[in-house]
Amino acid sequence: AKQQVIWLENYPIAVIDGSGAAANIGYIEPDHLGTPRVIIDAKRNVATWRWPLTGEAFGADAPEEDPDGDGERYEFDLRFPGQRYDRHTGLHYNYFRDYEPQTGRYVQSDPIGLSGGINTYAYVKGDPISFVDPLGLEGVGHWNNGSMDNVANGGEAFREMYETSRQWRTWGHQTFPGERNSAMRHCAVSCVLSVKLGSGVARAAGVTNEAQGLAMHDIPNLRSRIRGESPWACQASDLADNERGFRVGNSLSSGLSDSQLTQSCMQGCAGN
């Protein structure tokens, strides 16, 4: 059945099952970090799903899917902020990586390397009560009893990263339009993003961008692509050009203005 979650900033507060007159609303009670802990049926005022905060700290305990004992299981797959339970693998999809709650670790090494900590498989530095990792890159935010100011703002961080990527990709298309400028565009944009976001995040974003191109543009136009009537959106050469940009970005000094950064990236890509 169709399920839609309603958010208040970074906190899930309600879930709608179904649509139209048959839709059913459940009220979500999240904890201090934004993890859903209880869902209350709005009509019957009883809990239909529970994932208690008092359970295993790293999320190894399975949620209670029939706490009201009516014989009907209620499935809800949100877990820690940024995570969604995969019923086929038993892992939590965490955008850039997959999280294994039974071990409290990621199953892939951190794509940003040691920037996220010396243990590249660890989840939030071993402190899931205080930190969250909405992107699967690095634990952020700290909970304390005195203030909400430092609670992790994972959704906002993701939006800022996405907006930065979108802004500079738009700049790339405006500055280097068309397929003939593709190599320079990919190199220059990747150079800028590696400085703005770090090469690990920029590399992951580049791979995601190519995957989106495959799904959104290549597959729907597969016949045209195979016949050579239109260029492929997903190309291995694009990833190679991205890597050139990362190398240029890593060679630049810090503290450059946007105009200095773009000029340095374009000059570096032209000579690389």
UniProtKB/TrEMBL annotation:
Show which residues constitute the signal peptide. none
Gene3D superfamilies given for it? Answer: RHS repeat-associated core
Q: Which InterPro entries match?
A: Rhs_assc_core (IPR022385), T6SS_VgrG/RHS (IPR050708)
According to the lineage, what is the superkingdom? Bacteria
Record-linked PANTHER family: PROTEIN RHSA-RELATED (PTHR32305:SF15), PTHR32305
Q: What is this protein called?
A: RHS repeat-associated core domain-containing protein
Q: Which organism is it from?
A: Solilutibacter pythonis
